[in-house]
Amino acid sequence: MLYPIQxxxxxxxxxxxxxxxxxxxxEVGEAQGWPLGLPQSRPIAVPGSWNEQYSDLFGYxxxxxxxxxxxxxxxxxxxxxxxxxxxACYHAxxxxxxxxxxxxxxxxxxxxxxxxxxxxWGEEAVVAIAVENRLMPTRVPSGNMPSMMGLFAxxxxxTFDFYPFAGLHRPVWLYTVPSIHIQDITVTxxxxxTDGQVQVTVQLNRPDPAQGTLRLRGEAGGxxxxxxxxxxxxxxxxxxxxxxxxxxxWSDRDPxxxxxxxxxxxxxxxxxxxxxxxxPVGIRTIAVQDGQILLNGQPVTLxxxxxxxxxxxxxxxxxxxxxxxxxxxxxxxxxxxxRTSHYPYSEEEMQLADREGFLIIDETPAVSLQFGDxxxxxxxxxxxxxxxxxxxxxxxxxxxxxxWCVANEPMPARFGLAALEQNTPDxxxxxxxxxxxxxLARARALDPTRPVTIATIMGGPRSxxxxxxxxxxxxxxxxxxxxxxxxxxRDSLAQxxxxxxxxxxxxxxxxxxxxxxxxxxxxxxxxxxTEEYQAExxxxxxxxxxxxxxxxxxxxxxxxxxxxxxxxxxxxxxxHKGIFTRSRQPKLAAHVLREFWARE
Length: 600
Ligand code: GCB
Description:
By secondary structure, the protein is of the alpha+beta class. Among the domains are: 12-177, Sandwich (Jelly Rolls), CATH 2.60.120; 182-281, Immunoglobulin-like (Sandwich); 483-600, Alpha-Beta Barrel (TIM Barrel), CATH 3.20.20.80. It is 18% helix and 31% strand. It contains seven helices and 32 strands. The strands form eight sheets. It has an eight-stranded parallel beta barrel, surrounded by five helices. 48% of the residues are buried. The structure holds (2S,3S,4S,5R)-3,4,5-trihydroxy-6-oxo-oxane-2-carboxylic acid.
């Protein structure tokens, strides 16, 4: 799925702004004509979560309507017009001029519908999007599981530890494509010595024979050049390889981007371009070999964070200044990497990662998968496969994306403090293993060029790691286990890392470790919840990792404090494991990270 662009041929219009909004808890809106206008609307910002914009909507997750009117430029007539939603959490139904044009399940991933036939040229169009984010066992991520009782259950009843923000979280666009158009582009890159190879597959929307060209602009042979190849479409598909002598490779230290332009020639010999699409390309390879992750053939360490899209007022809504600031702060501590825990982040964020040289573990929305309720497993598997396919289709061309993570902390049936001891036999082990291996295999089939992994939970069966290229471990020695006992935590961490390495001989990334910390709380001795405790715990983990070559990355949980559900586990409804506060002020541990990472 290509990101909409504006050029000589294609058009786009950003519908971000203030929309009309109304909740519909009784679900009467469609029958009462709301797709054409809301009877009692109030203003709402798009993108943005509704929960953070109105205090009475904080806990609201049922159906709500967004409506706005838009003038589609008459100059667009003759092209196909699409309506594209960057992310709607969780389920969306889209209407244009009162007619339903499509539905989509699953947050954090874009979808688009061809609305050309529903427009009346010269008249304003009414766009309506009905969104709901009900928590259900059949959804991914899941909620309202019957099993979720007890001391740690929160409000609302998620299976996961972040607030289930709802709404239109990313921009809504109108965009156009010509009648014969480029539907998809797949770029893979290879390296031979100092030369680069850019392999491009282009897919058209029609199978008719057609011709086209590829142009790649950037450094080659020590100078700025343009390298070209021609494309011959058979059954709508064409492939070509561009050879780049003495290429400048993309890396976290030098995120150099080439510009690739694909042209499709119009029928007839007048040289007219029917469609054109341009995108940045980073020439790089990523591989796993002998217990190391290799970027362009060299060992690389992924240091950084698990994060969240989360901020005051905007909730999970795209917030561009925040994005720039977060990258600035991550660089300040010396990070070169993060995981999109626990769902795909915005496309704008992935573009920035390409440009700024961050190495991304790109995660699907499959957080806290459950395997105890056999009746719901087939439905969840289908949703997971759909989300995986949509994620890879969206992000496959980003050089920054170096790994797919198909699930975060799939849950053992015997989860609980007792099961935190390693290798407790788990009744869900078999069902979970089959489910997870289906996801890993699908990711590999969709993209054979990137390693795949699962972020595993403490106490989860080790057998679930078997098919991962890289072992990703979320570990809370010193917090959920041996809280306040950092010496014991150190020994357990070291022992576990060595055991996992001995068993699987694959690079290990600690994709989570951390401690809840109230900014401004201090203590000597360093008790849990103080800034000193977090700083010492982080230091301990980094020291243990530094003694082990097979540790290929350290990602602290979390970059910043973030909104979670209300529970006795989360003071103020916030997970306080951030290295920065929710308002992005550093805690003491930020300086420890700088000490380890920024000096390199
Ligand atoms: C985890 C989860 C993450 C939580 C974190 C915590 O293992 O992956 O979503 O926020 O623990 O702080 O408990």
